[in-house]
Amino acid sequence: MTTLKVTLDESTTPWTVNVNQSGNANHVPHGAKAHTITWRLSGNAKTGFFVPLSDPEPGFSWFRTKPSEGIFSDMAIRGNGKKLTVNDTNDNASSKGEWTYVMRVNVGGTVYSTIAVATIATNTNPTIRNN
């Protein structure tokens, strides 16, 4: 299981959602069993909630390249909107890859998103990488 902390980056204008991927926490090793990835609101985003997955602009969506069917499953918002989980099945050569995503969080009635929405090809785009 991997847990990624989600906060707001107050150094950007407007503020953006920041996913802490330090130590390659977003890298999922090859394995026979599904690996659960959990994003948890923390710090200055802790009082907010993930935008529902059913919204027209959902709390999570793939940016540019969508992964093949069967790699990611059972995405759900849990814990009163404070956690987002997905199962990552990285069990064969076709499940290897790197995918950028957009994440949206509502804090205090304002919706914030990851920087991938505003800027293409930055080093701060959040990704999931199956090794």
Describe this structure in words.
By secondary structure, the protein is an all-beta fold. It has one domain: Immunoglobulin-like. It has no helices and 11 strands. The strands form 2 sheets. Strands 3, 5, 6, 9, 10 and 11 form a 6-stranded mixed beta sheet that branches. It has a 5-stranded mixed beta sheet with strand order 2-1-4-8-7, with no helix packed on it. A hairpin with a 4-residue loop joins strand 7 and strand 8. It is globular, with a radius of gyration of 14 Å. The model has no long low-confidence stretch (mean pLDDT 92).
| Radius of gyration, taken over Cα atoms and rounded to an integer in Å | 14 Å
What's the CATH H-level homologous superfamily? Cupredoxins -  blue copper proteins
Return the domain count: 1
Approximately how much beta-strand content do the residues carry? over 45%
CATH class call? Mainly Beta
- Main sheet record: 6 strands, mixed
- The CATH architecture category equals Sandwich
Average pLDDT works out at 92
Tally the helices: 0
Q: Rough shape? A: globular
Structural class: mainly beta
Secondary-structure element string:
EEEEEEEEEEE
Residue ranges: pLDDT <50 for 5 or more in a row?
A: none
Tell me the CATH topology: Immunoglobulin-like
Distance between the termini: 15 Å
